[in-house]
């Protein structure tokens, strides 16, 4: 991994976060990092959902009826072949989901104390960081094409 050259998207995003932290206040830094916190959770949840095999009509009916026959309803063999299973598990785990909730709650609490002009500045930081986060994920997709 150390022999791999850092992609420009990764460099730009990490420098943006560092610059925000050095030049602005604590809350701006939180807004710069919030898209990462949210993004990892959302991507992992989406991948985890895609890993689940399609449900049969009987399984859907059992869930609606609240039936539990003691057997797993999904075949996990396809998911276990995924090289990123541990990564997915880390970012869908209860503690990470809790971190997302705490991060969002903290942002909302601090935002309520800001002036309208400050909110606009923070929105711009968040939007720019969101664009950088998107570029970061696009970098991963491009790497998979090579």
Written overview of the protein:
With 146 residues, the chain is an all-alpha fold. It has one domain: Heme oxygenase-like (Heme Oxygenase, Chain A, Up-down Bundle). 76% of the residues lie in helices and 0% in strands.
Order of helices and strands: HHHHHHH
**Alpha-carbon distance between the two ends:** 16 Å
CATH topology: Heme Oxygenase, Chain A
CATH C-level: Mainly Alpha
Q: How many strands, which pairing sense, and closed or not: the largest β-sheet? A: none
- Structural class, from secondary structure content? mainly alpha
Helices, by number, come to 7
CATH architecture, by name, is Up-down Bundle
Approximate shape: flat
Number of domains in the coordinates?
Answer: 1
**Hey, roughly how much beta strand do the residues contain?**
under 5%
Radius of gyration: 20 Å
The CATH homologous superfamily is termed: Heme oxygenase-like
How many strands?
Answer: 0
pLDDT averaged residue by residue: 86
Low-confidence segments:
68-75
């Amino acid at each position: 991994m150390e022999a791999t050259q850092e992609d420009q998207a990764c460099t730009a995003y990490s420098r943006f976060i560092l610059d925000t932290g050095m030049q602005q206040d604590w809350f701006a830094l939180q807004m710069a990092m919030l898209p990462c916190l949210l993004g990892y959770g959302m991507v992992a949840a989406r991948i985890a959902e895609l890993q689940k095999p399609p449900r049969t009509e009987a399984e859907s009916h059992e869930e609606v009826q609240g039936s539990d026959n003691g057997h797993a309803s999904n075949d996990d063999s396809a998911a276990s072949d995924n090289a990123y299973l541990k990564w997915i598990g880390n970012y869908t785990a209860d503690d990470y989901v809790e971190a997302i909730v705490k991060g969002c709650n903290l942002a909302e609490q601090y935002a309520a104390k800001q002036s309208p002009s400050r909110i606009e500045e923070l929105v711009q930081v968040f939007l720019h960081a969101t664009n950088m986060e998107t570029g970061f994920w696009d970098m991963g997709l491009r790497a998979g094409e090579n």
